[in-house]
Amino acid sequence: MNKLKKEYLFFKQQEPNMRTLLVTNMLYALVLPVVEIFVGAYIMRNTSDPVMVAFYQLAMYTGIVTTSLVNGFLLKKYSVKGLYSVGIFVSGISMFGMMALKTLGFAELGLAGFLMGAASGFFWTNRYLLTLYNTNDNNRNYFFGLESFFFSIASIGIPLIIGAFISQIDGKEVWGILIDINTSYRIVTMVMIGITIIACMVLWKGKFANPKETSFIYFRFNILWKKMLLLASLKGMVQGFLVTAPAILVLKLVGDEGALGLIQGTSGALTAILVYILGRIARPQDRLKIFVGGLIIFFVGTLFNGILFSAMGVILFVLCKVVFQPLFDLAYFPIMMKTIDAVAKIENRNEYAYILSHEFGLFLGRAFGLLLFIFLAYCVSQDFALKYALIIVAGLQLLAYPLAKNITNNTNTIEHENNK
After folding, report:
1. pTM score, two decimals?
2. Is 280 helix (H, G, I), strand (E, B) or coil?
3. Strands (E), 293-356
4. What burial class does residue 405 get, using C-beta atoms within 10 Å of its C-beta: 0-12 exposed, 13-18 middle, 19+ buried?
5. Each residue of 198-226: pLDDT tens digit?
6. Is the dihedral of CA 374, 375, 380, 386 positive or negative?
7. In DSSP terms, which residues pair with 177 in a beta bridge?
8. How far, in Å, CA of 291 to CA of 275, rounded?
9. What is the pLDDT of residues 345-384, one digit of tens each?
10. Cα-Cα end-to-end distance for the chain
11. Which segments of 75-180 does DSSP mark as H helices, in order?
């Protein structure tokens, strides 16, 4: 208890805006597993087609880059926290709208995915901007460590709770109403909408500033930022699979949503504690070690899945994925933000210009990864795609380490020169 109190007091010592942003993101962490996992499971259950899940995800990523561009124009007139709140709230509404559809064809999934992506675009771009303005390189390890801790805890608890709820309520009669599987999904979504409202209320307590410079569309960048965009593409390439693959593999090879929640939570608790400790004690120069550790763990997990391609292979893959994701993000986001700090000063530009182009870098990687999966599923087989597409993208992502090392060395040199 004394250690917990010490950590709480350390949290209270942080800047008020940073604390407000963390609490908001912690609340949204309760919603994110539903967006990432159970929406994919819902589509898979109602279409029995992994390609439909990938198509939905591609439409979602298209929505993200579209609203990232629109958000830049809106920032000239509206507050950043208002736009951030829109992203948080609309993500819940979009889930409910999709689950209200009676049929899930390509047109319906495309529209639902685009709207979900539109909400996510407002959420992620404004989240990056607020984090960039309200943290510095010295406290970003702590910020992302604490944030990843809660995201990891949520990725354990929420799937377990929702999986148990769906398994228990399906087919039962409540207040004279027979609850089927789709109705239980809608109940979950309504609860998530309530949480998004609370998150928005917390966010409005902060005093956040908009970018002073309003120009944000550029096509030529410093070579350092071009390297960062390549790194973003490598991240995005795997990210698309992390949203779709676990749900597809579990429902195909393991079982129902209850199993999905149980598998997600098996290794998450230890990872959450590990990531928090790393964020608390790791120095900026330790980021690359964390980065390469995450990459290797994920690659090994894809090998388990591809070689075994069974329930055990899926379990081992998801365990590695649960460990990889927070470790990778803990190192990646501070590297990204330090690079933005450096190139924004060199080129004297609005930081949002880099956040926007970063989203396009992510999109290119996500689109490549998902189109690779769709191509292999149609031209070879779905099993082949689920076995080997993951290994291919994980192998390519190993290239992220030397690239991240080069970016880090360059930003350190620029920082050292600026401090002279």
Report:
1. 0.84
2. helix
3. none
4. middle
5. 988 999 888 888 888 778 888 889 999 99
6. negative
7. 174
8. 12
9. 899 888 999 999 999 999 999 888 888 877 887 888 878 8
10. 44
11. 80-99, 106-134, 140-169
